[in-house]
Amino acid sequence: MSGSSSAAPRSGDSSLIVTLVAAAFFMENLDGTIIATALPQMARSFNVHPVDLSIGITSYLLTLAVFIPISGWAADRFGVRNVFTGALAVFTASSVLCGMTNGLVEFTAARVLQGIGGAMMVPVGRLAVLRSTPRDSLMRAISIITWPGLVAPVIGPPLGGLITTYSSWRWIFYLNLPLGLIGLVLAWHFIGNDRDTQKRPFDAAGFVLSGLACTALMYAMELTGRVDAPWKQALAWLGVGVVAGAAALFHLRRTAHPVVDLSAFRIRTFAVAMGGGSIFRISISAVPFLLPLMFQVGFGMNAFQSGLLTLAVFAGNLMMKLVTTPIMRRYGFRSVLLVNGAFAALTLAAMSLLTPATPTFWIVTVLFVSGLARSLQFTAINTLTFADVPRPQMSGASTLSSTLGQMTVGMGVAFGAIALRMAAWFHGHDGQTVTTADFNGAFLIVAGLGFVAIADVIGLDRRAGAHVSGHGRSGG
């Protein structure tokens, strides 16, 4: 954020603000993953095919990507407390609406509204923490608000499965109501309403063009992955997305105050992290969509059993955090991204070997090892992203990274549906009834995309980001 705030931070309340924002982050991250295990039951409620419900995930994630860029401008203009509490209210109310819906169209609309709340809630919440936390406590505060992004995916699948199996999928969304109401009261009382004294003009053209491009491209992928894909409509939306994307790039490069600052792409390490890193995120993000469906539709498990197995992937994510720093220091960014990236893709390919007859021990082992590789690759990409970004460009680079990050997660879900559709074609049927073999083929396609992702890293300098990783200073 540029400029100065008009009110002094409430330093005495900083710990409570950090906890409050961490809880809001947890809600936002949880709702991105928790419905994966509930898709078959939700599909029965809406009388649609389970694969078609991928739009319930992608619409939420896409809306996050579209609206994140304007969150900083909104906080500067209307105040941190006003925007954060407003976003939390929208998120909570739309969660209740999600639980009350009885059709795919209205559910998707409610998820879009929920995504708007989440898009404003998370970046503005982080800003509230930065402005209220003393500098010597900043590292601890950032560490606390980062953990929900790791813990929520761990809890999401089994919690969603437990609720779906023993109650109803609707309670997945109703649970946000008490949490949201408590958060609203605390946020209004403890978060200061800081504003930026230097008001930036709102880049309406940039917001509309970039939002249209993201929406059209994502919707084209969503249509392509459907069982009864309307090809003419999908191609039309793809064309709209390409034209809008080209127009957005032209505008953003020339306007004085772009809604998304693209200048960080001139930095090699940032460009690699956003290029190959985004492709990696797409491949990995297909897994939380495909795995629960394979376990329930392909293997005949219930939602709770499926969620418990999926937990192994995220357990591997957390376990790798213990050794990530020594590995990065010893081998450096380029070696880790190349070798571990290839290994991560191999673990995705290994999922294609799983069948209903595979012993649970081996299923858990494959998923756990895949989680280890995924975690290391994510951490390396996320750290490399800002390794060489100068401080004046940090805010713009952070917004750009957050936008692309949310976009690629949504594209990953859509790509998972497309891969499943392609596998069904290969096996000679239309996808109305997916088989275990279709899921096996889908994982091979997803693994192939994972291998493509590491190509961007080959040209990276061996010493790239060494001042951040510490590579070369301790025997590396």
TrEMBL record:
Instruction: State the InterPro entries in the record.
Output: EmrB-like, MFS, MFS_dom, MFS_trans_sf
For the Major facilitator superfamily (MFS) profile domain, which residue ranges apply?
17-465
Q: Which GO terms describe its cellular component?
A: plasma membrane
- Give the transmembrane ranges: 55-75, 82-105, 111-129, 141-159, 171-190, 202-221, 233-250, 270-291, 303-323, 335-355, 361-387, 408-427, 439-460
Q: How does the protein associate with the membrane? A: Multi-pass membrane protein
* A Pfam short name: MFS_1
Instruction: Name the UniProt key words of this record, in alphabetical order.
Output: Cell membrane, Membrane, Transmembrane, Transmembrane helix, Transport
What CDD domains does UniProt report for this protein, alphabetically?
Answer: MFS_LmrB_MDR_like
- Sample GO molecular function, one term: transmembrane transporter activity
Domain of life per record:
Bacteria
Q: Does the keyword Aminoacyl-tRNA synthetase apply?
A: no
| Compartment(s) of residence | Cell membrane
Q: What is this protein called?
A: Transport protein HsrA
